[in-house]
Design goal:
The protein is an all-beta fold. It has strands at 3-13, 17-18, 21-24, 31-35, 49-53, 62-69, 73-77, 88-95, 101-111, 117-125, 130-140, 145-149, 155-157, 161-167, 173-182.
């Protein structure tokens, strides 16, 4: 049995974005680019995790790692081809390991702006295909942090659980999750 302590960090989190265009790659290139309204900052930096849902061709949907990013698009590895429409992109703080038991020992949300914002954390069990809010639209004052799991509290997750993070204001939220994986 192996026990590993880890942190997952995302900064400049924005609200979920509606997909405006889906540009599939050629079969040999193996990537897809999703377009959205131009943002003030790049909402999904290279290497960050996203959850794509609602695109008309299901092969584009799911948990993805960003390989390219601009103010108005995001690219990720994908072998699906063909025209598609619709969809939403949401920031994923992390996905629990499919072969491990995960215990969350800390979640911190930090408002990086002077204004009051709201933040939400959703847990998405990809095995059971269920999603539920752990915290929904919690008010976070300007330049303040909120601890959702702290002081000995724990959150036990099943395998392959996504933690989705959203806010109501673009680029306003940083999130950190500390957790233990036992495999």
């Amino acid at each position: 049995m192996t026990t590993v302590f880890k942190n997952s960090i995302q900064n400049n989190i924005s609200p979920p974005l509606s997909v405006t265009t889906v540009t599939a790659s050629s079969p040999s290139a193996n990537y897809v680019t999703l377009g959205f309204a131009t943002q003030a900052i790049t909402p999904f930096p290279i290497g960050s995790y996203i959850y794509v849902s609602g695109i008309s061709v299901s092969g584009y949907n799911g948990y993805q790692t960003v390989t390219g990013a601009t103010l108005s698009s995001v690219t990720y590895a994908n072998t699906t081809t063909g025209a598609a429409t619709g969809g939403t992109i949401t920031t994923v703080l992390w996905q629990s390991n499919a072969g491990a038991k995960t215990t969350v020992i800390g979640i911190s949300l930090t408002n990086t702006t002077a204004n009051i914002i709201t933040g939400s954390v959703q847990l998405q069990d990809t095995v059971a295909s269920t999603t539920a809010y752990y915290a929904n639209n919690i008010v976070i004052p300007g330049y303040q942090s909120l601890r959702l799991v702290s002081q000995g509290e724990k959150l036990i997750l099943g395998p392959s659980t996504n933690m989705l993070i959203t806010t109501n204001t673009a680029g306003s939220l940083d999130a950190i999750a500390s957790y233990v994986e036992i495999s």
